[in-house]
Structure formats: structure tokens, C-alpha cells
Amino acid sequence: MDGSRLRRAVAGLAALVSLCGAGLASAPSASAIYGGQEVGPVDHRFTYTVFVHADNYRCGGTLVGPRTVLTAAHCLYGRAAAELFFGSRDVSTLPQPQVVKVTPSNWRVHASYDNVQLTDDIALITLPSPVTFSESVGPVAVSWDDTTYDNTPAVVSGWGLLNDSDSTSILHYVNLTIAPTATCRNYFGNGITPAMLCADATNGGTCQGDSGGPLVDTRTGKLIGIVSFGGEGCANRTPRVATRVPSFGAWIRTYSVDRLT
């Protein structure tokens, strides 16, 4: 199979994400997880999930150190500035707990990132100063274990679309299972690389607006993936693709100003 299905999926993703480009004031009508659950007001399991608003482009991110946030490269590629919301559950509520403004001088998109195939879809943001940790803001450990994650239970969180038409401003999460790479290649072709993770979306998954968000191994509580792309539409049940974080361990450690363990 060639990469035509992957290109169509990416094109559909770009078109649908563009629908989510309203200002923050219209968050409830502009942009969560398909088939997932709402994060409760006192649920502090997802303190590492960051809302990224870059030039009217909505994404997620992951706090992995006091000054380090990981996200998808396509969330920042070609953008002029971004605002990061820390400790937010409802992004329509003002004021937000902590908001940090950053520019391209604060972030690094992987040098091998391909904006068409979405390979090496990872970026690292260095915050101007450390964020303040609290019961609602805290980092997640990064998995450096460069091994297979087939059949691994995982959880993803974000503020993306609930389905192809409904949106929410409240953080949602959904449990997924990591599938073999071959599963995603059956859908998207040979553009699926060993530096990607394939997640089964039979019972729910990510949708537009969840890109860049965290995929965490529920057995270890460590970050293993960054949401990258999926097929056209939210409820299509095609597998979701994430950047495989352990594949970029050396790169992350090289450019992070934090001592990540």
C-alpha cells in the first residue's frame, strides 16, 4: 500500500482542525475526546495536560518538567506565538490558573519533522521561567523504555472535539490500548514508522483539537506518546497515531533545560 491513504487522512485532519480556530472566548463552540469521559473538578490525575493555543490553532501539550512542555510539531510549525494554559479544566473560565506566552524562540520543532507525512511530529517548548506546581499543576515522568508497547493500556487527555459537530471546553480523557504498528499500516500505509505508536480506537479515541496531547502508559504512569493524527472524522474507529516518545529520548534530554529522570 502506498501513502495515499495517509495523505488523505492528513488532509482531512488539517481541514477539520481549521474549524477549531476561534478565539478563546468562544471555546465551548469551537473545540474533546471522542467516546471518553469528562475530568471531574477534583480529579487531579491529569495535572500534566496543557492547553496550547497557537495562532488560533488548538492543541494539547504535556508538562514533563518545571520548564519543559512536549507537544506535536504540527501544532507549532509556522506559528508566530502560543499561549499555554496550566492547571486548566475548563478553558472557557477566566481567569485561568497559569497562562504562559511563548514565541518560536522558546520552542524547538524536530529538525526531521515532515509537515506532510507527519513523521517526527514532536516539539519541545522551554518556558521562560518554571511553572508553579500545585494540586492541579504537575509534571508526568517520561518513559525512556525503548521497547514494544503492543497491548499496553494507555490514557489520553485533551480538549478536542467530542464528535464531528459537538465540542466542549472541559478536559476529557479516554482509555486506549496500543496496537501493533501493522494495524496502522493497514489503514495509513508505509508512512507509519517505528517512531510512531498505533492506538486502537474501537471504543473511543482522539479527535481534532487533541493533537499534541499526552498518551500515558496506565501501568507505569509515564508518558509514551504525543497525539499526532488519525483518519477523517471523530467516530470512524480507525486507529489513532501518536509520536513514540521513547524514540526521541536522546533528543528530549539534549534540549530540555530540566534534569529529566
Automatic annotation (TrEMBL):
InterPro entries: Peptidase_S1, Peptidase_S1_PA, Peptidase_S1_PA_chymotrypsin, Peptidase_S1A, Trypsin_dom, TRYPSIN_HIS, TRYPSIN_SER. Keywords: Disulfide bond, Hydrolase, Protease, Serine protease, Signal. GO terms for molecular function: serine-type endopeptidase activity. SUPFAM superfamilies: Trypsin-like serine proteases. One of its GO terms (biological process) is proteolysis. Residues 1-32 form the signal peptide. Residues 33-257 form the Peptidase S1 domain. It holds the Pfam family Trypsin. Belongs to the peptidase S1 family. PANTHER family: FI18310P1-RELATED (PTHR24276:SF98), POLYSERASE-RELATED (PTHR24276). This is Peptidase S1 domain-containing protein. It comes from Kitasatospora cheerisanensis KCTC 2395.
